[in-house]
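re: the backbone from monday

yeah here it is again, tokenized this time
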């Protein structure tokens, strides 16, 4: 076990990459932002633990109270992105979700706000699984920078919406 190696040196050795490649990844804050946003999202919007079957109920419960424009661009981005079969398979890694498949099979403009929220949250959920449990190497995160940023922005909107609805995060004594 390394005792004197820096984290970036250790990670570079582990992945077989140069320290400069590892520093590019570590200097980018998107993984940290995703982790923090996910923690807040999972806690605030799903009472601490998200499971794929819970997403439909969340979308049904939340869609009526969130403005349809707030997440439209993010949902449209992912709807368009996952029309590509290879990208979709990469996202899902063999997992099946019939509702998601059905939504991707319909024109975006025909989706309800609940459908769009389901699609978006399901994609964020899959990114979370792929980042923290998947077989993707950490070094591949930079290839998905735009998608991860969209996920983070979507979670910011959803956490803020949940906090406005049920404030619990601000310290009353402050």
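seq for it, each position gets an aa:
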């Amino acid at each position: 076990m390394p005792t004197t190696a820096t984290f970036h040196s250790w990670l570079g050795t582990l992945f077989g990459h140069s320290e400069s490649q590892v520093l590019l990844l570590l200097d980018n804050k998107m993984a940290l932002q995703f982790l923090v946003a996910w923690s807040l999202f999972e806690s605030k919007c799903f009472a601490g633990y998200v499971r794929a079957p819970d997403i439909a109920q969340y979308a049904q419960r939340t869609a009526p109270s969130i403005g349809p424009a707030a997440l439209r661009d993010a949902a449209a981005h992912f709807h368009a992105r996952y029309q590509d079969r290879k990208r979709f398979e990469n996202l899902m890694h063999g997992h099946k979700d019939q509702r998601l498949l059905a939504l991707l099979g319909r024109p975006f403009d025909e989706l309800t706000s609940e459908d769009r929220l389901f699609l978006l949250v399901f994609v964020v959920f899959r990114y979370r699984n792929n980042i923290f449990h998947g077989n993707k190497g950490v070094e591949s995160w930079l290839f998905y920078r735009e998608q991860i940023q969209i996920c983070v922005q979507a979670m910011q909107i959803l956490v803020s919406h949940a906090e406005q609805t049920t404030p619990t995060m601000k310290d009353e004594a402050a």
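Residues 145-165 form the longest helix (21 residues). The chain has one domain: 18-165.
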